[in-house]
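Annex B.
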Amino acid sequence: MFEGVVAYALNKYLGRFVEDLDSEQLNVGIFSGTVHLTDLHLKAEALAGFDLPIEVKGGCIGKISIDIPWTSLYYEPVLVHVEEVLVLAGPTADRKHDPEKDKRLSRAHKNRRLEDARPPDPEALGDRPRGFMENLATTIVNNVQVSLQNVHIRYEDSVSTNGPLSCGLVLQNLTAVTTNSKWKATQIDADARSLFKIWFEANSVVLEVQYAN
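Vacuolar protein sorting-associated protein 13: predicted structure tokens.
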């Protein structure tokens, strides 16, 4: 009954960041309440919706596990646990002019905004009232709780005013939850006008910065 809505919400959420997401594998796992995806690649446009002068040069994810609280979708978050993340990033000004890539990134940015405003596919809503199912899908997306484990990020910049630099960031654990305006963890319904996220429980953080001679 609700499988189509959950599949729609997770495809929308993960599809922003993951290249060639296996929707069929995702849909099959949803029925059991637990989904496991392995050996994934990050999209080059994964950061397109954040209005940052940074892009993903390359990246991969070892494993994504998803736990779906079927008995209380309206009151408990879907849990997404991400392990073994490797990311190579850099400034957009650092790469050679590539008209095709510029178009793709621009299109991804526009699509992200359209997806946020677009209602769910009617086929995903099933025979339940449309308003109810749309609200459920929005509630699921708004309250996804994400935890990251073993994250390695390398940032390379050859256009810095102080000369070429590279940064390495290693995070053992990092968690993101939905909060209210007072930054208190809470469940946000579909009618909420504002959505807040707070990152916490960051353990074993190591940052290294190197400038080229």
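The helical segments are 3-14, 23-32, 99-117, 122-125, 130-142. The beta strands are 18-19, 34-42, 54-67, 79-91, 145-157, 165-179, 196-203, 206-211. Further annotation is deferred to the next reporting cycle.
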